[in-house]
Amino acid sequence: MKNKRIIVIGGGPAGLLAAGTAAGQGASTLLLEKMEQPGRKLSITGKGRCNLTNQTDLRDFVSHFGDNGSFLYQAFSRFFISDLLSLLHTLSIETVVERGGRVFPANMDASEVTRRLIGWAMDQGVVIRTHSRAQELLVQNGHIHGVKLDRGEVVEGTVILASGGASYTGTGSSGDGYTLAGQLGHTVIPIRPALVPLKTAGDDAQRLQGLSLRNVRASLWIDGQKTIDQFGEMLFTHFGISGPIILTISGRVVDALQSNHKVEIAIDLKPALDEQKLDARLLRELDAHGRQHFSTMLRTLLPQKMIPLCVEQVNVAADKMCSQIDSVERKRLLRWLKDLRFQITGSLPLEAAIITAGGVSLDEVDPRTMQSRIVEGLYFAGEVLDVNADTGGYNLQAAFSTGWLAGSSAAKSLA
To answer: What is the pTM of this model?
Structure first.
């Protein structure tokens, strides 16, 4: 190696992989972390359980990133699921696979994963400096030559910018990387929340606060047109709706609302039954409970907490005998079960989002190396890039993979 250094800005999953990989290939590597310790966001990811990746094939994996997913093919071809699991195995982190291919550490402890990765990076030779915030990237003749810290100190070297997004700012992800990249002429696609809970109009969702539903289907309707749907779990909250399937849809919701479209979420409470089969079931239930009240029969179809809302919106008296329910009322119930609508008025702020959408334009980054096409010697990794995916471990794998590729490429450039 020439007498040069690699400086990694940010100690999240992308930064730790970048730094450890570069140092492991012989590069003098310094990791700058502005918080008191690296990996704070990683330590709370997946509600503290750490959804590391997803056991699916490459094509399906990439599809979860939407239109920008193809950018990741190069990184995934170099460091992907098996490579990550192999690394974790060497760190004595065993994994388990849950429903939907989601991979977690067997002990479900995200903080332990963070500690092991920090230890691995240090064992590779990485020097970690905490409480060190990058204020400016120093460029001369189109080539980066160092970083100026907020205390005025200048550190020379090639730079990997892995400073994360702008959500969960308390963990250090406050959007610094977007500012640093923008100062050098990089285009930053406007940032916005993704994988974020949604606010609903009225108080229907709030009346169901705390209720979790499984095996339902949520469909996104924009200006009266159905766009996408998701099957799985959701949750009602004091402000609206959340849960895995809502978070997955939320990115498109945010974009549609910012463009002043009317946005609705329709919940199919009985997705396993088409309308004909559901109608047949309703006929059986009403017949079997003919001498009981309508609200009593609904216990066979709904959680108790949903029954008052159903009675109100279907407009059938709670104490009406099931034998007296006519076909029009039955059809209203069927429609309610298959198409429970909520108008979406907004989302929680970026601070509350799991990840940040937007970031450094992929047109200005070489996917083969993660190096900037504008500034030589500057590399990007992780959430600072304009790539984001559904829930399920995809985003964390992208951070690890782009981090590995940036670290490897930067080390080779100094060889």
So the answer is: 0.91
